[in-house]
Design a protein that fits this description.
It is a single chain. The chain is an alpha/beta fold. It has one domain: Alpha-Beta Barrel (TIM Barrel), CATH 3.20.20.70. It contains 11 helices and 10 strands. An 8-stranded mixed β-sheet has the order 1-2-5-6-7-8-9-10, with helices on both faces. The radius of gyration is 18 Å and the shape is globular.
Length: 286
């Protein structure tokens, strides 16, 4: 059955001065952003507010998740000067909070790119000491020494997404392991980092499964959780099974807070880094 267009979330497209400023800094410093690569629906809003999610370690991913529009293939060599450029860009933007993410680099067998992660955090600390840093990392294949490298750099918030309910995880993330994502989150909690995760809905899960997933993640000690509508980036990606109603998103938020999360962002256009600066302020204060 075809889903009516009226059910789809509406996206505001406004090219403000803030958007133009961020775009210029991104181009000047040759940065990749998940805003562009993942075709995020919030790019005009976030860039207009002079925030962006910076994607490190190139723009080619070694994995081919069914929901993601980032290019898949053989990545180029690691750019060792990338952390310096990012430190400069964060300073130029005058950011008070920055979100870093990356492609999966399963080709880097020594640390899966963790050293670049740590160096980027260090450079931002040098140029913008008052800027809080949130990292949204891959699973590093569950390799603890790689995770430890990132943990030791002491980001203010460590985030890793479970992405979906366990039942459909293998279809959504072919090369990932759902339980491994839980282990990554548990390691972050155990070391004392403020920890965050999130998932998409509309991929064929039930509301009961969403709540069960939230319960599992909350029980780990994760404090911030996001729930957003999956939007099909191209016709080659997984199709949308349904558009979740607003009252259902509201219910996820209410129930999530009851489960023990300190902050729950739940809505059609919510993404991991959407209004992350506001979440960070509330979470760190809490």
């Amino acid at each position: 059955m075809e889903i009516p267009r009226s059910a789809k979330p509406k996206i505001q497209l406004r090219m403000t001065d803030g958007y133009k400023k961020v775009s210029k800094i991104v181009r000047t410093n040759r940065l990749n952003t998940v805003c562009e690569e993942a075709r995020c629906p919030n790019i005009y809003d976030c860039w207009g507010r002079e925030t962006a999610t910076i994607m490190i370690l190139g723009d080619v991913c070694t994995r081919s998740c069914g929901f993601c529009s980032v290019k898949t293939g053989k990545p180029s060599s690691v750019d060792l000067k990338e952390p310096i450029r990012i430190g400069k860009a964060v300073k130029d933007m005058g950011l008070k909070h920055v979100v870093l993410t990356s492609v999966d680099r399963d080709d880097l067998k020594n640390d899966f790119g963790a050293t670049i992660w740590a160096n980027t955090i260090t450079e931002i600390r040098k140029t913008s000491p008052d800027c809080t840093i949130e990292v949204l990392t891959p699973d590093f294949q569950g390799y603890k020494p790689a995770l430890q490298i990132v943990f030791d750099a002491k980001p203010d918030i460590f985030s890793h997404n479970v992405e979906c309910v366990e039942r459909i995880s293998k279809k959504v993330r072919v090369q990932a392991i759902w339980v491994r994502s839980l282990t990554v989150l548990q390691n972050s909690v155990d070391i004392g980092l403020l920890t965050k995760s999130g998932m998409m809905v509309g991929l064929g899960e039930t509301n009961e499964e969403v709540l069960e997933t939230m319960q599992v993640v909350a029980d780990l000690g994760v404090k911030v959780f996001t729930v957003g509508q999956y939007l099909q980036p191209t016709n080659k990606h997984l199709s949308v099974k349904r558009y979740v109603e607003k009252h259902e998103f509201d219910m996820f938020k209410v129930e999530g807070l009851k489960l023990g999360f300190e902050i729950v962002e739940s809505g059609p256009l919510v993404r991991s880094s959407y209004h992350a600066d506001e979440q960070a302020g509330l979470a760190i204060k809490s």
